[in-house]
């Protein structure tokens, strides 16, 4: 396993609680849209065993051509040890990344794509949207639906409807409106539905989509194959 040590080159305050840490891109490090990585803080491998409290599974919110590895995360006042430690990191501090993989690359199957996300889950979809806006081959259109009760919506400069490019973006701040909209989107019985958020959010969306007649093969989750099968199994319920 290759561990890439790199430095924070910029910290962007997206909202009062959300920050993006832009990391220098190592020369031989590459990734595709929808990728996640293991993001680790200094000291995680200092002992005989890795200190798992200093490692988190994070989505990469940028594309390679942006030449920085973006890690976007919500850091609340009351937070985990990892995020408390991360909050004190400054530009120039070293961090590590390893085991990078994409579970949710953009499927180009001549279908409509629906991106369903909660809060900072939108960071996973930012690269998919940028990739589509650069090259729309074999994607009919994309619609993004994000729910964030904080009302501090993320990446509004990217998630801005562009009808001429067949891209629409929608933000809502309550569950009732969100699930009503999911049902409306599910009227497209051939669409592809990407879902990113907490496990509870995934389960609720899967249930709503199933009720509307959407098949498991049309749902794409940011989970490895075995976990995805568990979430999409018939027995799964809230």
UniProtKB/TrEMBL annotation:
GO terms assigned for molecular function: oxidoreductase activity
UniProt-listed InterPro entries: FAD-bd_FR_type, FNR_nucleotide-bd, Riboflavin_synthase-like_b-brl
Alphabetized Gene3D superfamilies for the sequence: Nucleotide-binding domain of ferredoxin-NADP reductase (FNR) module, Translation factors
Residue ranges constituting the FAD-binding FR-type domain according to the UniProt record: 1-107
Protein name (record): FAD-dependent oxidoreductase
Organism field: Psychrobacillus lasiicapitis
């Amino acid at each position: 396993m290759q561990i890439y040590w790199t430095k924070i080159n910029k910290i962007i305050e997206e909202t009062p609680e959300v920050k993006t840490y832009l990391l220098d891109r190592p020369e031989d490090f590459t990734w595709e849209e929808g990728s996640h990585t293991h993001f680790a803080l200094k000291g995680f491998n200092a002992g005989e065993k890795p200190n798992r409290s200093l490692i988190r599974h994070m989505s990469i919110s940028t594309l390679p051509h942006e030449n920085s590895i973006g890690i976007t995360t919500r850091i609340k006042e009351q937070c985990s040890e990892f995020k408390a430690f991360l909050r004190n990191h400054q530009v120039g501090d070293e961090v590590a990344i390893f085991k990078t993989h994409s579970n949710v690359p953009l499927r180009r199957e001549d279908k409509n794509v629906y991106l369903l996300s909660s809060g900072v889950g939108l960071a996973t979809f930012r690269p998919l949207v940028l990739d589509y806006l650069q090259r729309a081959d074999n994607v009919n259109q994309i619609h993004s639906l994000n729910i964030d009760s904080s009302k501090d919506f993320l990446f509004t400069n990217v998630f801005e409807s562009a009808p001429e490019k067949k891209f629409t973006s929608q933000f809502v701040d309550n569950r009732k409106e969100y699930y009503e909209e999911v049902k409306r989107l599910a009227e497209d019985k051939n669409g592809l539905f990407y879902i990113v958020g907490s496990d509870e959010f995934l389960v609720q969306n899967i249930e709503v989509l199933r009720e509307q007649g959407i098949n498991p093969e049309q749902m794409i989750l940011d989970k490895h194959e075995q976990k995805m099968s568990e979430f999409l199994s018939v027995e799964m319920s809230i």
